[in-house]
Amino acid sequence: MSGAVVEPIPPGTAGEIGRRARDWIPAIVVFTLGIGLWQGLTTLFDVETFLLPKPSDIATSFWDDKAALWDAAVYTFKEAAGGFAIGSGLGILAALLLARFRVIGAGLLPIAIAANAVPIIAFAPITNNWFGLLNPVSKMAIAAVLCFFPTMINTMRGLTSVHPSSIELMRSYAGGEFAIFRRVRLPSALPFMFTGLKVAAVLSMIGAIVGEYFGGPTNALGVSILNDSQLFNFPRAWAGIGLASAFGIAFYGAVALVEHFTTGWAPSARSFRSE
Amino acid sequence: MTAAPSRVVEIRGLTKSFRTGVTALQEIDLEIEAREFVSLIGPSGCGKSTLLRIIGDLIPATSGTVLVNGKAAHQARLDHDYGIVFQDSVLYDWRTVARNVSLPLEMLRWNRAKRQARVKEMLELVELTGFESNRPWQLSGGMQQRVSIARALSFDPALLLMDEPFGALDEMTRERLNMELLQIWAKAGSTVVFVTHSIPEAVFLSTRVVVMSARPGRIAEVIEVDLPQPRTATTREEPRFFELVTSVREALAAGRGDAARPAAAEDLY
What is the rounded distance in angstroms from the CA atom of residue B180 to the CA atom of residue B197? Predict the structure, then answer.
């Protein structure tokens, strides 16, 4: 923001979307070059498949068995999404309570931060025991615990880091705690909350897959990757990993899209419209 | 607005001490009549912003009475008797310019049609018609502050409290906004209490300048500004303007000289 604006700025247009698409071109070029390099080097040096399969072999393997792999990915994604919903939902709820009742917050927040340092993945065998190896809830539980902390801590930060004069302004209009919460704290916490949710979206997929490494139904992606690598079917294992990544990225993208539509006003959204 | 009492602000024996033991304000007596434009000026730490916030019931006084529109400051706040403008425009990024201006109207539960009509009127007043659907951060600092003034006046408060509203702006924008503020003041017919660091700004805008001294914050001198109304660009060039600027400067210097201890750099706010 340098010079003064003289004319009203029209709201978002097609030009903006075009500009966004152009922002992606470098990433797409780098990705394509990377795959090309991978293919070239593995062919050139004749790298063993168990070390690193060629991208073409991985793609063929995926194509040959796409229905089963896709079903497995969808099954795992459902676990991840369930865990995300539970963990993030509870995280937001906890943040609201902790921000509202500061005394409890002051007591619980350090514990929450300490708990965040616990390697939660290590609990996967335990939750498998609690809810049953074949029960998707056992994987959801791991995903949920992973999602809880980033969502809670970020939302909490958003709710409590409101500028004091924003609050004074509401008080000057005789606004009470609830009005301040609804009209100031909540909207200004949204960008923070989405930062947490985007981290959680990625973590949920990791949680579900790692949970499956400790046992689960054969139609789950984590179990499929584990079995393939034990049977030396590395291209298929890599295809599974690729699919897991694609679902993780898509989930992240979906959350980012919701973020764009709900907090398009936020500073992070400014970057692509400034000159 | 119902016929407001002619005395808009009445402060008697006001003292404010902070828990740290610092006395921010000591024995302040001040009366402000309707349609006055009163500036509070003084060194950092003289408690001028604190005084403004006590008038607005945003922080409590330690002792003494503060009446706004003849009521206790607390009641006046609940009755929406004043609008406030901060140094930072405090516009909400998640609201458009129009919705920022209508925020106090929403708090007052005005219906949509009435709100829209008033927002249109207010944006005309501050010459921002056409910017209704822009976001605050798309505007320059001076424009943001005009939105903030429109918001503060949207519900016709008897009193307008301004805490260094132009302090963060460049000199040219500041002088232009000073002119605009005076025009708005003339049209809106409100009473203004204006905190500033700038001596020329205080003299140019005010009908009275309250000079404060620091540690503890006291009223050192009250200077009547007898420059003719309406003030124009040439007001700043009149000999009387310079005389008044000099008197304010001398009063500030005298206030500093009286202080037993040298003023520290900290700002007590």
Answer: 19
What pLDDT, on the 0 to 100 scale, is given for residue B265? 42
**3-class DSSP assignment, residue A51:** coil
Cβ–Cβ below 8 Å for B94 and A188 = yes
Q: Is the pLDDT of residue A61 over 50?
A: yes
| Per-residue pLDDT tens over the stretch A136-145 | 888 999 999 9
Q: A193 by DSSP, 3-state: which?
A: helix
Q: Which of B85, B87, B94, B139 to mutate: most A Cβ within 10 Å?
A: B94
Percentage of chain B with pLDDT > 70? 93
Q: Convert B91-124 to b/e letters by CB count within 10 Å (16 or more is b).
A: bbbbbbbbbbbbbbbebeebeeeebeebbeebbe
Share the mean pLDDT of chain B.
85
Residues in contact with B42: Cβ distance below 8 Å, sequence separation at least 6, in sequence order: B48, B211, B212, B213, B214, B217, B220, B252, B255
Contact A189, A159 (CB under 8 A): yes
* Euclidean distance between CA atoms B145 and B165, whole angstroms: 7
Q: Which residue of A has its CA nearest to B139?
A: A5
pLDDT bucket at B267, cuts 50 / 70 / 90: very low
Q: Cβ–Cβ of A4/B82 closer than 8 Å?
A: no
* Number of residues that this document lists for chain A: 275
Contact call for A175 and B107, based on CB within 8 A: yes
A231 with B59: CB under 8 angstroms? no
Query: What SS3 string covers chain B?
Result: CCCCCCEEEEEEEEEEECCCCCEEEEEEEEEEECCCEEEEECCCCCCHHHHHHHHCCCCCCCEEEEEECCEEHHHHHHCCCEEEECCCCCCCCCCCHHHHHCHHHHHCCCCHHHHHHHHHHHHHHCCCCCCCCCCHHHCCHHHHHHHHHHHHHCCCCCEEEEECCCCCCCHHHHHHHHHHHHHHHHHHCCEEEEEECCHHHHHHHCCEEEEEECCCEEEEEEEECCCCCCCCHHHHHCHHHHHHHHHHHHHHHHHHHHCCCCCCCCCCC
From chain A, the residues in CB contact with B134 under 8 A are: 5, 8-9
Our CA-based measurement puts residue A4 at a distance from the nearest CA of chain B, in whole angstroms, of 5
Nearest to B84 among A172, A190, A263 (CB): A172
Q: Which amino acid is at B21?
A: G
Distance from A18 to chain B by nearest Cα, in Å? 21
Rg for chain B, CA atoms, rounded: 18
A119 band by pLDDT with thresholds 50, 70 and 90? confident
Chain B residues within 8 angstroms (CB to CB) of chain A: 53, 56, 58, 77-80, 82-84, 86, 88, 90, 92-95, 103-104, 107-108, 130-131, 133-135, 137-140, 142-143
Q: What pLDDT sits at residue A120?
A: 80
Q: What is the largest CA-CA distance in chain A?
A: 74
Nearest CA to B154 among A214, A175, A146, A173? A173
